[in-house]
Design a protein that fits this description.
- A hairpin with a 4-residue loop joins strand 2 and strand 3.
- 37% of the residues are buried.
- The radius of gyration is 15 Å and the shape is globular.
- It is an alpha/beta fold.
- The protein has a 6-stranded parallel sheet with strand order 5-4-1-6-7-8, sandwiched between helices. The protein has a two-stranded antiparallel sheet with strand order 2-3.
- It binds zinc ion.
- The site of zinc ion (ZN) has 5 residues, from loops.
């Protein structure tokens, strides 16, 4: 079985504007500014043999203010820029009570079936507590970048940046293999 690093999209792979309570997601390709500093860490993870899967909540799809076509354009750019294997989207609103809207673990579990992943030996990178909670439920190790959205839920590590997180995963990897 393969191991995976799941990566939250907004705030990790692309920039977000910061609103009073949460991040403001870009809705068009023109607003979609990539975080190019993520390219080198992702390459290191890819070279270490991980499947790289991007996950994202995009409730604007069901609320009607995010077009599917713009999301496809943004995700084409993501795939061209970063060595990622898959992008999984929850298009639902909170009121849909779907199994895939993070902090629920549905996207991780779906990827687990699709890519034959060992979730217990996989990792989740984000800057938000919802991903740490999804990781906990799915059995993955969570690593968060310091941010205002870490909150007080269970997480395994909070580190300064994506470089430090990548170093940590690559140090943990051999330990996981002998376990
Ligand atoms: Zn959903």
């Amino acid at each position: 079985m393969k191991r995976c690093v799941f990566i939250e999209r907004d705030g990790i792979l692309n920039e977000v504007r910061v609103g009073p309570k949460n991040q403001i997601t870009p809705l068009t390709l023109e607003e979609f500014k990539l975080n190019l500093n993520a390219a080198a860490p992702l390459r290191r993870l890819k070279e270490a043999g991980f499947v790289l899967v991007v996950t994202t909540n995009q409730p604007g799809l069901s609320r009607g203010y995010q077009s599917r076509r713009e999301i496809d354009r943004m995700h084409d750019l993501l795939r061209r820029t970063f060595p990622i294997d898959d992008i999984l989207v929850c298009p639902h609103d909170e009121s849909d009570h779907c199994p895939c809207r993070k902090p629920r673990p549905g996207l991780l579990i779906e990827a687990g079936f699709k890519w034959h992943l060992n979730l217990d030996h996989s990792f989740v990178i984000s800057d938000k507590w919802q991903d740490a909670e999804a990781a906990r439920t799915a059995g993955c190790t969570s690593l968060l970048v310091k941010s205002p959205w870490v909150a007080r839920v269970h997480h395994d590590f909070v580190l300064d940046d994506l470089e430090a997180i990548t170093d940590k995963i690559l140090r943990l990897k051999p330990l996981v293999e002998v376990a």
